[in-house]
């Protein structure tokens, strides 16, 4: 899973419109997949650091917790209903979002598109 | 060069004792079909169907922007008002447009909050209509979010609203129409989406009224997209089950804005829905 988020980092580096959307976003986000913690350190729209956990010392603004099978479906070009959006994962009981939800909502388009960068068909997004 | 068949005009109606300047579009001839847009959007959601000769052949499609939406202005004094749509004001507005245009028992097609009010009208004013096409419509949906998020001075409510509702668009939707659909939300005025959501997420009065709907006089057909997280197929099934005689179709590859996000995918479902609605009586033609 760490490799996937390094790919997200590289694709975001090559996606100028997303960097522009996230230019005011400099926060740490926890993504937890099957219990594996990954801390995403955003800096003005770029994914500056991808740091494996576990960590009890890393403050984060909001967290997305899910499982690998759900994310695999989420990253298909046309996921099944419910797997097509991070809020869909929550709705069908395959995900949880904690922390400063308003911060997430204020940067929602940016974060959702960053999370979708591994999606099939996004290879050319760069 | 050729113009699209859609024409737009303005009319002024009275709602709540005060004038409202309403923007109305229409296309086609024949049986009137009044189309209601979703929250945070406007008549542009219906443009594909209004430009579709198979739909307008025998049907006069009419859509209008609710006050505060699209090209319909908010009421005088809006700058000090807190826009919160109510069931009563919504019903009054729809009936005022019908009266002003002299429509005789139109079919009412509404999506999302437009579908909700269609069912309210079916329960309370069914005799004014020929039938109801309730799209992504359910009895009640409480919000899991804070509607105040979408009207605040430090963020763009339209952009946040668009990002939120994008969860309801099917991955089968053509990208161009996904983004056109979201653009309308991004353009909605400050606090308008919040005010619509107040109606949609706080007023549960429809639940107790569904059993009153007389589908023998005015048929009710519900359409729901499998990718709709706001009004899920389960929500629509529950709602349809509470209306004796109502019918329901689940659209497997569509979401919450079917006429806007994926017009080609929605077309056969809408044509089928229209076919289920009665034609005008000969004496009223």
UniProtKB/TrEMBL annotation, chain B:
Among Pfam families, the record links this protein to: Abhydrolase_6
Q: Which UniProt keywords apply?
A: Hydrolase
Every copy of the AB hydrolase-1 domain together lies at 33-266
Question: Which GO molecular function annotation, any one, does this entry have?
Answer: hydrolase activity
Q: Which residues form the signal peptide?
A: none
| Descriptive protein name | Alpha/beta hydrolase
């Amino acid at each position: 899973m760490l490799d996937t988020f390094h790919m997200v980092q590289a694709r975001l580096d090559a996606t100028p419109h997303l960097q522009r959307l996230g230019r005011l976003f400099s926060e740490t986000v926890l993504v937890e997949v099957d219990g594996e913690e990954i801390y995403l350190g955003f800096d003005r729209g770029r994914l500056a650091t991808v740091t494996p956990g576990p960590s009890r010392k890393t403050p984060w603004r909001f967290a997305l917790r899910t499982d690998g099978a759900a994310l695999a479906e989420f990253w298909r070009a046309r996921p099944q209903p419910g797997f097509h959006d991070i809020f869909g994962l929550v709705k069908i009981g395959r995900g949880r979002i904690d922390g400063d939800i308003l911060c997430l909502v204020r940067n929602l388009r940016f974060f959702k598109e960053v999370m979708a960068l591994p999606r099939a068909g996004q290879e050319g997004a760069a | 060069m050729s113009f699209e068949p859609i024409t737009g005009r303005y009319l002024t109606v009275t709602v709540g004792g005060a004038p409202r300047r309403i923007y109305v579009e229409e296309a086609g001839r024949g049986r009137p079909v009044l189309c209601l847009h979703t929250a945070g959007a406007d008549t542009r959601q219906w443009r594909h169907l209004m430009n579709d000769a198979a739909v307008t052949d025998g049907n006069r499609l009419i859509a209008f922007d609710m006050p505060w939406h699209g090209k319909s202005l908010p009421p005088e004094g809006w700058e000090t008002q807190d826009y919160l749509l109510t069931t009563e004001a919504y019903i009054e507005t729809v009936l005022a447009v019908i009266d002003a245009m002299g429509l005789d028992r139109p079919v009412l097609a509404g999506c999302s909050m437009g579908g909700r009010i269609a069912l309210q009208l079916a329960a309370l004013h069914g005799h004014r209509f020929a039938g109801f096409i309730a799209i992504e419509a359910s009895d009640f949906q409480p919000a899991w979010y804070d509607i105040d998020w979408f009207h605040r001075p430090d963020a763009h409510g339209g952009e946040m609203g668009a990002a939120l509702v994008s969860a309801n668009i099917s991955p089968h939707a053509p990208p161009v129409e996904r983004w056109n659909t979201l653009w309308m939300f991004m353009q909605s005025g400050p606090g308008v989406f919040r005010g619509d959501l107040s109606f949609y997420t706080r007023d549960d009065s429809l639940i107790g009224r569904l059993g009153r709907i007389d589908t023998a006089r005015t048929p009710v057909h519900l359409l729901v997209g499998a990718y709709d997280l706001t009004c899920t197929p389960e929500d629509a099934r529950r709602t349809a089950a509470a209306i004796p005689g109502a019918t329901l179709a689940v659209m497997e590859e569509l979401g919450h804005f079917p006429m806007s996000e994926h017009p080609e995918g929605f077309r056969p479902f809408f044509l089928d829905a229209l076919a289920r609605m009665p034609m005008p009586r000969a004496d009223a033609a």
